[in-house]
Structures are given as structure tokens and as C-alpha cells.
Design brief:
The protein is an alpha+beta fold. It is built from five helices and six strands, in the order ααβαββββαβα. The chain has one domain (30-152): Alpha-Beta Plaits (2-Layer Sandwich). Strands 2-5-1-6 form a four-stranded antiparallel beta sheet, with helices on one face. Strand 3 and strand 4 form a beta hairpin. It starts with a helix and ends with a helix.
Length: 154
């Protein structure tokens, strides 16, 4: 049983966990992913993280204290003139669940006050490699590997 399956066993009521438990994923499924970029006001970071926890979505990274310019009059530069900063969340979503995740994020956004800045970007991913060490479809440069091991063993 994988770590994600174990996590979902404990959270079967969560939307994304239900979807994962009902699927039989194949190797081909690793080639149909999207990366969703979520730009959001930094003050809403924990609220979005709590939302992901509530729906059982655990495939994201977050960069905080990002300085952004949304328009001529809306800037988050973390200064006295332009206070505040934003966060960028990077989500990995199976292509077949993209529309569902967009619906969830739109619903989340509608729960925030009107003036809160939040935007989305969708980027196709050629392939997902969950465990690079174990992936046999990628070769290793043996000469370079030997040099690296020698360099770091000193």
C-alpha cells in the first residue's frame, strides 16, 4: 500500500481521496498531467492550504512572499508604498481531473472577499516522474555519477 493510499484510507470522505481510491492508474496516466499555477494574496495562504486539506488534495508546492504587479493600481511589492505580498501555489493535477479542480478553485475563490487577488494558469506537463531514483526509462551517465560520488565521498 502506498503512502497516498494510506492517507486516503484515513480520509475517505475527502473529494480527491475518493477519486484516487476509485481509479486504477496505469503507467500511461503519468503522461496526462497539468500543472496549475495559483496566484493568491499572501494573507490567504493558510486558508487555501486548509481548503486543500479539506478536499484531500496533497499534490502542491507553495512559494511565499512573492512580489507581484496585477495592474497599474494593484501591486504587492512588500513596501510601504505597495504593501503586501502574494503566494504562488504549483499544483500537479491529473488531466482528467482538471475541470473538477478548476471548479473547486473557483468555488474557493468565490468564498473570499471580492477584492482579493487570485489568478490561475494551466500548463501542460509532458510527463510526471514520481520517483526519479527508481525510474528505469531515464538513463544515468555512469562517468558523471562516478565523479560525483568521488567528489562527495571525500
Amino acid at each position: 500500500m502506498s503512502k497516498n493510499e494510506n492517507l486516503c484510507d484515513e480520509n475517505k470522505e475527502k473529494i480527491f481521496c475518493k477519486m484516487q481510491l476509485e481509479e486504477n492508474n496505469t503507467y500511461a496516466d503519468l503522461f496526462d498531467f497539468k500543472m496549475l499555477i495559483v496566484y493568491i494574496n499572501g494573507a490567504q495562504k493558510s486558508r487555501l492550504e486548509n481548503f486543500f486539506e479539506d478536499i484531500g488534495f496533497y499534490y502542491y508546492a507553495c512559494t511565499s512572499k512573492v512580489e507581484t504587479v496585477w495592474s497599474e493600481r494593484l501591486k504587492h511589492k512588500n513596501t510601504n508604498v505597495w504593501p503586501g505580498s502574494d503566494c504562488i501555489f504549483m499544483l500537479t493535477v491529473p488531466g482528467k481531473h482538471l475541470d473538477f479542480m478548476l471548479k473547486m478553485l473557483k468555488t474557493f475563490r468565490m468564498s473570499l472577499p471580492e477584492g482579493i487577488a487570485m489568478g490561475l494558469g494551466v500548463i501542460p506537463m509532458d510527463r510526471v516522474i514520481p520517483r526519479v531514483y527508481d525510474d528505469e526509462s531515464i538513463s544515468v551517465d555512469e562517468k558523471l555519477l562516478k565523479r560525483l560520488k568521488e567528489k562527495h565521498s571525500k
